[in-house]
Amino acid sequence: MAAAAVLLLTACSGGPNGGAAEAGTVTVFGTASLTEAFTEVGRRFEAAHPGVDVRFSFGASSALVDQVRNGAPADVVATADEAAMRPLVAAGLVAEPTLFARNRLAMVTARGNPKALRSLADLSRRGLTVVLCAVEVPCGRLAAQAFARAGVEVQPKSYEANVKAVVSKVALGEADAGVVYVTDVKAAAAQVEGVDIPAEHNVTTSYPLARVRTARSPKRAAAFAAFVVSGEGRRVLLEFGFEAP
Amino acid sequence: MSRRTGERPPWAVVALAATAALFFVAPLAGLLLRTPWSGLGRELAGGEVREALVLSLVCSLAATAVSAVLGIPLAWALARVPFPGRTLVRALTTLPMVLPPVVGGVALLFAFGRAGVIGQWLDRVAGVSLPFTTAGVIVAETFVAMPFLVITAEAGFRSADPRLEEAARTLRAGRWAVFRRVTLPMVRPSLVAGAVLCWARALGEFGATITFAGNFPGRTQTTPLKVYLLLENDPDAALVLSLVLLAVSLAVLIGLRSRWLGQA
User: Fold this and answer.
1) Which chain B residue has its CA at the smallest distance from A62's CA?
2) Taking CB atoms and an 8 Å cutoff, what residues of chain A touch B231?
């Protein structure tokens, strides 16, 4: 009896942040471009909430949404644009999403920019091996918008399944150029070089974050979501190249 | 075949066999139940769907042909020629079977990619670039599928009776004639079985293809890649495409079994 009372008390005491993030796991599905930033956010969240283990699954937004629709055990979902989150909202699978960060596109190429890329128009150069994200994923949709704005037609050699695959192909030297987010360029700075896209052609996207209604621990999910939009979470995101929502 | 009256197969075996059969039937049943039969025609008429199917068939058949041309001699050598390092070569040829396909794709990039060990040379000397091309798809599929043909063919060559070949030689038949008229007919069932396995594996290949050859409609977007991308955005079309591929595969497998493998 006394043991049960003690257990109850410790469960209710909560962490130093006052939020009741009791020990356990929180599963976060994040879009590929959030890989580095969210991993750091997770580390800091675990430090602030001892006993909580953050498990990540990173992938293309559309793939993650599909998994959640099929019952994957996510507590929190973060996609790269609102269009990707829409099916989950429409199906009533998630609570109202919050926009927590913004990102914009950049061109990525080999270090030293050997092909001397300056603008989006350079991507339509003959003989250049360009890879883009598939239009089914957010970064592919956005790249298409940017090309439309710049009045450029680009013939890529391949449409990759997620943004990190584009970075890999360029980093491996298989592709000369690709279009990814500025945060991906920053994350892979040791292997690739970014080329800015002028503001009048560039597109920005707002990242939504939502708690899954069937989350194993709604409290832990809420605590993580709150941490992401808190001052510290925001600082981490800015550090990795994201912009304020 | 006669059975002693009253003797039935052990129930444990029957139960396990039934479970195994269910394991294979259930996903197929699920696919058939979820298919949007009414919209079938509309989905199939889509240009990109047809493109993916044609590309898949062409590449898988080409991969099987390459695997046969290269793999049968290799299988023969592994079975009949006691060369040094044979065990190692055999192990290496079966490596793609245990390697995760994406890892295989990355390995292919390091070998035949633009910056690859052989790829660099190919690019400079012959102007040939394999990644992002249909030829690249065939290379990726051959890499993952050839081991199936080699293993089956090697088993066939090993089990072929050498005395028949020796008899033919004593009757003054040349080596090629012996191979063509004595050995090949003996191992034909193994070769066909190996080729079918090889073709099936090539048809379903995804990881190595998307990593090495990329994904571009009409050029490198084979059916598995198309299904993967469609699944997230247009599940109905993905289902239809899966069904078509399944139907084609079943047709070939069932058709071949009776005619070429000599089974009831």
Assistant:
1) B232
2) 66
